[in-house]
Amino acid sequence: MAQTVALVDTIKRCLKQKKITYADLAENLDLSEANVKRMFSKRNFTLSRLDEICQVLEMEISDLIREMAYGGTTLDELSIEEEAELVSDVRLLLMATLVVNSWEFEDIETTYRWDQNEIIQLMAKLDRMRIIDLLPGNKYRLLISRHFRWQTNGPVHQFFENQIQREFFNCAFEPDRGELLVFISGMLSRTSNKQLQRSIHRLAKEFDELSKEDSKLPLDERFGTSMVVAMRPWELGVFSALRKEPSDKEF
Predict the structure, then answer these.
(1) Which residue in 38, 43, 184, 194 has the fewest CB atoms around it within 10 Å?
(2) Rounded CA gap, 131 and 101, in Å?
């Protein structure tokens, strides 16, 4: 019974994190809001219903189980002000990126032009922001959740978007060097668009899982890797200019 309670509490927490109300869930499950509330109050879910809820959450049941194990005690996102603080000091932003990728203190000291005091000072700031728990002996414990994300269009996103436009695509994208660029254009329905968005979310989740799994490997066996995936209803400007009238079709 205790695990059932924990699982239902985890579902509620995930719904809240994704800002999905009972009314939203009822609409997706083709149920009344009253039925959804009753289902949660009685903690009565069939496996098929649980699978449907996971689809709405864009999660797998296994993800839900792992989230339950974390207990919701970790950080899911920073405030806009905290992100702005990171971006205001590129050293602090780099340190945040390093600890998220499980760099050891010794590797940081060997690789970057920081002495021990500078590294500890930067880590102390991350400790204050509750990104890490700074421990004795130059150790730390990561406090961010598996679903940690930067604020949408927040300071960190904007910082990296500027770098992406300036640096990321300045590349020949050679597959044998671990590089790949795919561009596909076509016409999709709204339903197909949403299906592809779910696939992109699953791909991002797989990237995150592989990154966490590989964090156990020595640093010299890992490579800093970035993946950009984007999709939008769009027409090349030089093609739009040839239309008789501007398109007024809304997605």
Answers:
(1) 184
(2) 12
* Residue 142: strand pairing partners: 132
Residues 84, 119: contact at Cβ < 8 Å? no
Task: Tell me how many degrees the CA angle 183-185-188 measures, rounded to the nearest 5.
Answer: 135
C-alpha to C-alpha distance for 41 and 32, rounded to whole angstroms: 14
Report which residue type is found at 72. G
Overall pTM > 0.70: no
- Token pair, residue 60, equals 């797998």
Residue 75 has what DSSP assignment? B
High-pLDDT (> 70) share of the chain, % = 96
Q: Identity (one letter) of the amino acid at 76?
A: D
The answer to whether 141 and 68 are in contact (CB under 8 A) is no
Rounded-to-integer distance, Cα 67 and Cα 213, Å:
16
Q: Which pLDDT value is given to residue 147?
A: 67
DSSP 19: T
* CA separation, residue 155 to residues 19, 41, 131, 152, 162 (Å): 21, 39, 17, 9, 11
